[in-house]
């Protein structure tokens, strides 16, 4: 007789493991099945985010930033460094250690919350019976379990370019980009999105000559235009060679290099040679091996699992969250959906507000935003007011030695309700949280302008940008 559970979560990424824990907190018997494994073949829960995404990339971004500061910025602080050398092996080892700490942390949380963990791949084994859906687990120990409710959180995979499949040695996805064993002299990056810019920044800091090829004619099209232009200027000054409006042609792999034929924005034919090539052109939903056909699970025209606003699929008792469904492919979005679904199963009113989900690019300077951009407000015909404040005029930023960027507020011209906040600058990923809270409670720009902010702090730039909505900044 198979083991029976109230809720089975397929996938232990941010959406999956959080959904499992919340369901267990609500009193359900819960199992979570995940196939990720470490180099020793053991379980490595956490999904793409923990293993080859958010966590290891931030570890390398931090390490590479330390290296760049030691080589360039420390001298201004009166710290002289001689004999600076890169120990890439140790840097990668530290990154792997950070990943393992997160893997182990999730396994601990499962144990603490009495979530049964199965290491393997789960697939629907047939239609639901009296006891629920039979799920076949293939892994170190093959078995079948039964679930009254199923939450699918199988995440996404890196999108490949036809004719340039990933080998993770010369042509790299995010997985290979995080594990290059020697700093490439020339690194190519196709795609100027979050992954491309973050990985390009890491290897530029460590010594690579980095060229970024982007198909769109504008830089960071989803970002507020004013912020994106500032970012392009700053990244170019740092040494990233950003080429927009590129049409990628043939990609040819040699023994130790990759050549990329492309047409630039002027229509000129160019062939560039790189030691390594990172392809970061988006991600596709991962439904491989799920057995969707076995039970008639509906997918949409783009291959995502079709869900309604509550994350319900077309099958009773089957839900889906995170990268495998519509909406932004963000770990924190997946977490919020996971919590909401667990609460809906319990008869509660779980809620996810897509309008207040923050976005972050962890470059230096960081870029973070929430709400609508200025170009979106113009396109929608919304009357608005804008206010900006530069970090150049912020005392804490001066003390840090990082005065690049700004904070920008957008508010309704009539009601003063905050419609969007956009930040490029130091610690933008932390500063954006105040804006998320404010927008969730439908605060006005004046609300932020009248709140006392600690001095000296970077957050004062947020207050000043809110003051700038009414043209009454105090320090600029």
Offer a quick outline of the entry.
It is built from 14 helices and 22 strands. It has helices at 14-25, 47-52, 54-73, 88-112, 174-177, 194-205, 225-238, 292-295, 331-345, 374-380, 395-400, 428-440, 445-449, 460-468; strands at 3-10, 30-34, 116-119, 121-124, 133-138, 143-152, 156-158, 171-172, 186-190, 209-213, 241-243, 247-253, 258-263, 269-274, 276-279, 283-285, 318-320, 359-361, 366-371, 384-390, 406-412, 418-425.
Give your account of this protein's structure.
There is one protein chain. This protein has about 475 residues and is of the alpha/beta class. The protein folds into three domains: about 220 residues, FAD/NAD(P)-binding domain; about 110 residues, FAD/NAD(P)-binding domain (3-Layer(bba) Sandwich); about 110 residues, FAD/NAD-linked reductase, C-terminal dimerisation domain (Enolase-like, domain 1), CATH 3.30.390.30. About 30% of the residues lie in helices and about 25% in strands.
